[in-house]
Amino acid sequence: MKTVLTVLTAVFALGGMAQAEETIPHDVQAFIRNAEACEHFAGEFDSNLSETRQKEIEHSVVKYCRRAQKQLQKLRLQYEKDARIMGVIRQHTNESVASFR
């Protein structure tokens, strides 16, 4: 019985998360994915890595951080009057996105 309750609790929790994601516009979800990838790759850089790997990481940082930064500019204008969405955007605007070039 305890196992069944644990499974049901997990299912309802995941369903709630999926529902919460659905209330976030797709363009904001795309920004969140790019901002997270930007932060991830920016944190991966290490001068002890091979030159090839450093270039791969740098390419990914530029790709995702540039994309997230461009999206951020558009989203701020588009959702400036929507406090809830602006909160989500601010929450996912990490230092890597904000300080990119």
Any overview of this molecule?
It is built from five helices and no strands. It has 101 residues and is an all-alpha fold. α2 packs antiparallel against α3 and α2 packs parallel to α4 (83-92). Mean pLDDT is 86; it is low at 1-8.
- Give the biggest beta sheet: none
Strand count? 0
Overall 3D geometry? Answer: elongated
Low-pLDDT ranges? 1-8
Strand content: under 5%
Helix-strand topology string: HHHHH
Radius of gyration: 18 Å
Summarize the structure in short.
With 101 residues, the protein is mainly alpha-helical. The chain has five helices and no strands.
Keywords:
single chain, 101 residues, mainly alpha, 5 helices, 0% strand, disordered N terminus
Secondary structure: elements and pairs:
Blueprint: H1 2-22, H2 26-44, H3 51-78, H4 83-92, H5 95-98
